[in-house]
Write a sequence for this structure.
């Protein structure tokens, strides 16, 4: 099948690499406000929490929710720290199942009980973002940054939300740069800087940031695909193809698609 060059260019305009996003995860029971489990907790409560954490670790989020709910109902209206633990962990579990409204509800309860809980603000922000409530997400990330201004992960999370729309993409760039300043090895922020500049049609700068991401992690397959797209837009098809091949060899599906398209273009005889 022949692929007209105009069609390939249109395809490249449509596609853009997606780096891992909203993937800042915290293991159950590690909320900043939770702390150690109460030494006076009844054995069945501790057993339920431990079992819930085990189920969460195994990916059985719905059954983990059942365990955490039993703990929450058993400790309701008490000051036992395990109550906060159970609500927070249940919020993480709801988030994993894609039930973002319920996750938001649980993280909101944690924040009501412990307003300075940074992980709860971060995860509620993630849930808001995935539930298409951008303004609320940004508010939570900003609050978390106020509480912990040296935490690179918080700027990264807010930057993702800012860069999603053209009106705030420059603010996203500022956040990603701040994250990299705080953590020069932050490959995901470097990758999103590549994406942001690609969206702004500054392909040279885009390629440079993808290159930096590859330097941090030579196995970062998404960065190769991103750099390939930026170089293709710079009329550097040979370099682009090499990146797509490398990404495809590492298992990146988009890299494989780009490799296939450019290879078919070459076989078609189109200059």
């Amino acid at each position: 099948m022949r692929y007209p060059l105009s069609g390939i260019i249109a395809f490249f305009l449509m596609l853009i690499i997606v780096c891992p996003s909203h993937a800042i995860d915290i293991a159950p029971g590690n909320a900043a406000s939770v702390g150690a489990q109460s030494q006076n907790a009844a054995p069945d409560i501790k057993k339920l929490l431990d079992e819930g954490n085990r189920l969460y670790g195994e990916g059985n989020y719905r059954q983990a929710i059942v365990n955490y709910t039993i703990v929450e109902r058993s400790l309701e209206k008490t000051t036992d720290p395990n109550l906060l633990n159970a609500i927070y962990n249940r919020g993480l579990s709801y988030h994993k199942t894609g039930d973002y409204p319920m996750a938001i509800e649980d993280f909101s309860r944690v924040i009501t009980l412990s307003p300075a809980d940074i992980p709860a603000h971060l995860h509620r922000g993630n849930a808001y973002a995935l539930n298409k409530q951008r303004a609320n997400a940004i508010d939570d990330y900003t609050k978390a940054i106020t509480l912990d201004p040296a935490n690179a992960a918080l700027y990264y999370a807010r930057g993702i939300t800012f860069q999603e729309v053209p009106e705030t993409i420059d603010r996203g760039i500022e956040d990603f740069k701040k994250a990299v300043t705080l953590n020069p090895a932050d490959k995901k922020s470097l990758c999103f800087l590549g994406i942001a500049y690609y969206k702004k049609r500054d392909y040279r700068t885009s390629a440079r940031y993808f290159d930096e991401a590859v330097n941090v992690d030579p196995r970062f397959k998404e960065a190769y695909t991103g750099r390939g797209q930026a170089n293709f837009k710079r009329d550097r098809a040979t370099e682009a193809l090499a990146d797509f091949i490398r990404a495809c060899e590492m298992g990146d599906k988009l890299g494989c698609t780009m490799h296939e398209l450019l290879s078919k273009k070459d076989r078609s005889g189109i200059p």
